[in-house]
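Quick note —
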Amino acid sequence: MNSAQPSTIEMFLPFIFIFVIFYFLIIRPQSKKMKQQESFLSQLKRGDAVVTSAGILGNIDGLTEQFVTLEIANGVKIKMLRKQITGTQAQVLGSGDGTKDKGK
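Predicted structure written out below.
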């Protein structure tokens, strides 16, 4: 009796299927998000109100290719990597008035 062995393609089909799932669920969205972040960082300008990855809120006082100087309080400035800027204050805080609809 000959037992039927699967062909090479049939053996690799599950691995190919898993790779396709990983690509569409993990790799593609991550690369899309990275492109959006790079675009956001390239559009930063002086005076923008931003939030850093550490949660520091501030206004951009100076920009270079790699660094950003943030004014976090009157006369208090910090210099940090441009890549550490995660978004604008409006994106993170919403409307900015501190109130949210609590389902009333």
